[in-house]
Amino acid sequence: MTSAVPTDTRLAGHNRISTQALTSTARAVASEVFGIPAREIRASWSDDDGLLALRLALPIGIPSLDRTVRDGSLVAGFGGSIWDRAHAAKAMVLEQVSRLSGSQLSRVDIRIIGIKLIDGGRTR
């Protein structure tokens, strides 16, 4: 005789997501948003009144200065200035990490720690 558990019944117990799993998730999301390899992204967490605050430190891809001098519209094509891109990325990272992990994030702080020159669509 088999007994099925109704889908609306909650089972007793705990589910926990390790800090390492959250960090890997945050790095993967930031990698996708910024187009930078995840191995180059540092992520750390802190408590923010019961919610999680995420801190990211990463390089950002930019076109070479020679290219931007030749083509003034290139910066806009990359998504704007470094400041604008980092600011816009906060909401994307917060939403995606929250959705994927099920965790409630209060904020995402982004620190740009370097640049990666992108020439012809490739990071070098």
Can you walk me through this structure?
A hairpin with a 2-residue loop joins strand 1 and strand 2. Helix 1 (19-34) packs across helix 4. The protein is elongated, with a radius of gyration of 19 Å. It has 124 residues and is an alpha+beta fold. The N and C termini lie far apart (62 Å). The protein has helices spanning 19-34, 65-70, 74-77, 82-101, and strands at 42-48, 51-63, 105-119, 122-123. The longest helix is centred in the C-terminal third of the chain and has 20 residues, at 82-101. Strands 1-2-3-4 form a 4-stranded mixed β-sheet. Helix content is 37%, strand content 30%. The protein contains 4 helices and 4 strands, in the order αββαααββ. It has a single domain, classed as Alpha-Beta Plaits (2-Layer Sandwich).
Key attributes of the depicted protein:
124 residues; alpha+beta; elongated
Which CATH architecture is right? 2-Layer Sandwich
**What would you call the structural class?**
alpha+beta
| Strand order in space, largest sheet | 1-2-3-4
Task: State the shape.
Answer: elongated
Q: What average pLDDT do the residues reach?
A: 87
Helix content: 25-40%
Q: Give me the count of strands.
A: 4
- Strand/helix succession: HEEHHHEE
User: Which consecutive residue ranges, at least 5 long each, have pLDDT under 50?
Assistant: none
Q: From the alpha-carbon coordinates, what is the Rg to the nearest angstrom?
A: 19 Å
Largest sheet: 4 strands, mixed
Euclidean distance between termini CA atoms: 62 Å
> How many alpha or pi helices?
4
Amount of beta strand: 25-35%
Task: Just give the CATH class.
Answer: Alpha Beta
